Amino acid sequence: MTQKTRFTLVNFKIASWNVKGLNNGIKRKKILTYLKLSRVDIAFIQEKHLCKSEALKLKRSWVGKVFSSPGTGKSRGVSALIHKAVSFTETKVITDKEGRFVLVYGQLLDTPIILCNIYAPNADIPAFFHNLSQHLLELEGAQIVVGGDFNQILDQDLDRSLPRRGTESKSVVAIRQMTSDLGLNDIWRTMHPEGREYSFYSPPHNVYTRIDYFLISEALVNNSVDSSIGNIVISDHAPIFLCLGNILQIPQSRRWRLNVSLIKDSGFIKLIRDEIQFYKQTNNREDTTLATWWDAMKAYLRGRIISYASFKKKAANKNIITLEAKLKALEAVHSHTKDRVTLNKIVKVKYKLNVLYNRKAEYALFCINQAYWEIGEKQSRLLAYRLKQKDSMNHIPGIRQSDGVISTSIRHINDGFRAFYNNLYSTQGTKIIH
Question: Coiled-coil ranges per the record (predicted)?
């Protein structure tokens, strides 16, 4: 009897963020760390200000694939970052010469999908959206997720802290035409019909606006669990998030490792000593073998270590969560009052948050640099780990089945190889895969 591949339904998180430059190594690490802590699976990055050769600097930490439309060192440039744990197989990638959009057509798990990241011109140029719509129309039979900085206000009453009457720009008309032709939906506005949250603040005009959007296919609306707007801290734009539910995924196996930094924690050392003594007193070694007694104690201590490490991590992140909530509330007040006192409070909170983000990024860079400086050129665990990571990225994107059809489905690939080897080692084999 063959064992079937187990799948589970998970939530899938996509982020879009105008980061206003990633040339600085500390800021680049802050952005990637923030997205990692936000548990993002796919990230759309705008205004990265990295040329083609530098775009691979984003392929670090959790990022497995990078699709970019490079700008110059001082303007434009967009990238789509895909988590290394996400099963995505690209079929076609379309970019423009100005670094304004990157369009990736492929298979997300078993679903054909188009991921489109845009950074629209801040002038009224409807031709940009007409051109984008034409590219999307040419790729049929797939769900569409368009995200990015549109540089346009779709609703002058709700998407602007100071409502303004007047005729819509030609670009807004082009966006509405594109959403109508492609069957797209502004998912944040759908979930918050009367909501007033903003993704950009202009100090010269003292006005908040929502100009960053996710436009998704109508078929994905029912799968949408949440859509939210973050804080304006690291960049002059806030990140926006989209969470899709009921996505079929193979659960990732995780291997527990001891956080060695805890060894320098006096509270941790005392905890382990006390837990060992408690285990000795409550478990009679005469009733079992020494090996079983020792393995059981290791399992017990691992549970206590995980609990302690989780507590320490939550305590460390509590300050950040508190400051982010405070900043969100202050921005909501300032969008209505526009007073200088509230603005000064916002600046102070942003400063405190940036200090905490900097510490996290600097410590992460320090650990990386130290490890590579000490053992980077030696045959060690670091080299083995890097080789293992590289091998894990060389997955099989598709197979040709017995009927001649090429399948990129994870389920079909696993079942195909299982059937092939079952037949290969049986007395009578049949040709399954070519």
Answer: none
